[in-house]
Amino acid sequence: MSVGTLSKKILQAALFYEIWDAMKVTFKHMFRKPITFQYPREQRTMPDTHRGALALLRYDDGRERCVGCDLCEAACPSRCIKVISSEDAERPLQRYASEFYIDITKCVFCGYCVEACPVNALAMTKMYEFSTHDKRTLLFDKKRLYDIGERHLDEAKKYLYAHNQEKNVEESREYRYYFPQSVIKATQSTPKHLS
Ligand code: SF4
Ligand code: SF4
Question: Which of 72, 86, 120, 141 to mutate to test the pocket of ligand 2 (most atoms within 8 A of CB)?
Fold first, then answer.
């Protein structure tokens, strides 16, 4: 080590140079606008693509969208969905989910179930405050999922729009109403039992 370097090191040690150097960072941040959110008094604005609690959706006339096809259950990598489907007595050949469960403790919020659903009956919301001391309450049943869907309908729709799964246009709405047959441009005649 040269004499110059040695004397520089001695001088830096005498003046506590490293402490002052580190304090520079502290002083710099003291005068900056803080970016910490004081949760829960302050809450972040979530983007429409946010993957929060899952919800089941109804059509505008109140009918359940879910046709109990089980595709969401098959797509779920965590195996946390259970669908029990039944025949709809009022609409022959049509099925619905008589029971629907999602174990949120196992959910990894990947959104695969939403993508797999052919009728966009599932969507994700911006709801993320459902922590609890009793994990049994995190087994969301059909009623709870539809309740979330009703309370967070706007967010759920925005999620579907943001992920290009649904379009916010009249044609899209009418098609969804009459799945699997479009009423705008019918491609086949109405089955006898429905006419
Ligand atoms: S978000 Fe993913 S892990 Fe959660 S229920 Fe849907 S498919 Fe399963
Ligand atoms: S939510 Fe969708 S994918 Fe799952 S059972 Fe219902 S219709 Fe099928």
Answer: 72
